[in-house]
Amino acid sequence: MRHIGVKRLEQIRTWLAGQQPAPAPDQSPRVQSPVATSAAPPQSPAPSGWSADRWAAVEALWGAGCPLSGGASELIRLATPLGLSGACSVLFLGAGGPGPATTLASQFGAWVAGHESIADPRPSSRRRAAVAGGLAHRASMEEWSPAAPAFRPTYYHRAVVWEPLAACEVAPLATALANALKPQGQIVWLDLVAGPRPPDELFARWARIEARPAPLPEETQITRALGRVGFDVRVVEDLSQHHERLIIGAWRDLLRRIHASRPPARLAAAMVDEAERALLRLRLHHLGQMRLVRLHAIR
After folding, report:
1. What is the per-residue burial (b if ≥16 Cβ within 10 Å, else e) of 121-138?
2. Secondary structure of 4-28 in HEC code, one letter for each residue
């Protein structure tokens, strides 16, 4: 069944590239609200290869301002076990804009400091819309340095950490998080780790495209690093298949919305690129060369 999903994504990709007729849209339930895709995206460039067209393609998949796989609903699902409330201050790492921080503040009423890596190639929060209306005092954006991670000391009750190891070493980040959290603080950490099989040329291609360090860390590197700085890792969950379903579902939903007419050329090209990235990631999951895991740790 997993390979059926990959085949479906390949069909969508070739249609967007203009190489075959549109595949019939899937009639399964929608996975997210529609996002406008008919208008051409703005021309303003983004840093390090993230063009406005690529940003528009990502937003079409996951929702406006939310470049995270699974979108706002997945972010809320992952953060729920932390018991967030208006009494909590939250460090959110890997934000890629104000959208995720605003989502958490809106959903839980928490005070959320989104932190965007200075090396993050996604359009900076300074180039994105400001944090919405009355939530501006509860959701904020700051920058952090992967080369020397440091956050406001002993300030946060909780942390939500989304694939930070794309740009950072495990041990320094674990230390920085321990320094930032209050006693009894908790972390939910989502990241890619090495799979049971050694990486090959396909993995090397993915790493080049995504500008990711190779090899990926082992799961035990993260759990041991957290343990050394005083965290008790209570949960380690493999979310690889879950996120595969999210990716395939998002592409089916996008096809349903754009089925009547192919998007403008630049946006279609950006969608083809995103489909290629998704296919590489899914194939590496299937080949056992990478996994996506969720860790929940308590001090």
Report:
1. bbbbbeebeebeeebeeb
2. HHHHHHHHHHHHHCCCCCCCCCCCC
Spatial distance between the Cα atoms of 241 and 291, rounded to a whole number of angstroms? 9
Nearest to 17 by CA among 279, 281, 267, 287: 267
Could you report the per-residue pLDDT of 204-226, keeping only the tens digit for each? 999 988 888 778 999 999 999 99
User: Are 109 and 102 a contacting pair, CB within 8 Å?
Assistant: no
Backbone angles phi, psi at 191, to 5 degrees: -160, 160
**pLDDT (tens digit per residue) in 104-156:** 999 999 999 999 877 666 655 444 444 444 455 789 888 889 899 999 999 99
Q: Which of 41, 66, 70, 39 is nearest to 247 (CA)?
A: 70
Burial of residue 178, with CB atoms counted within 10 A of its CB: 0-12 exposed, 13-18 middle, 19 or more buried: buried
| φ and ψ at residue 259, rounded to 5 degrees | -60, -35
Largest CA distance in the chain: 58
Indicate the pLDDT class of residue 39, thresholds 50, 70 and 90: very low
What is the arrangement of strands in the sheet containing 156-162, beginning at the earlier edge strand?
139-144, 111-117, 89-93, 156-162, 181-194, 290-298, 232-238
Report residue 110 as tokens: 């928490």
DSSP 136: T
Q: For strands 139-144 and 111-117, give the pairing.
A: parallel
Domains parsed from the chain with CATH numbers: 2-25+45-298 (3.40.50.150)
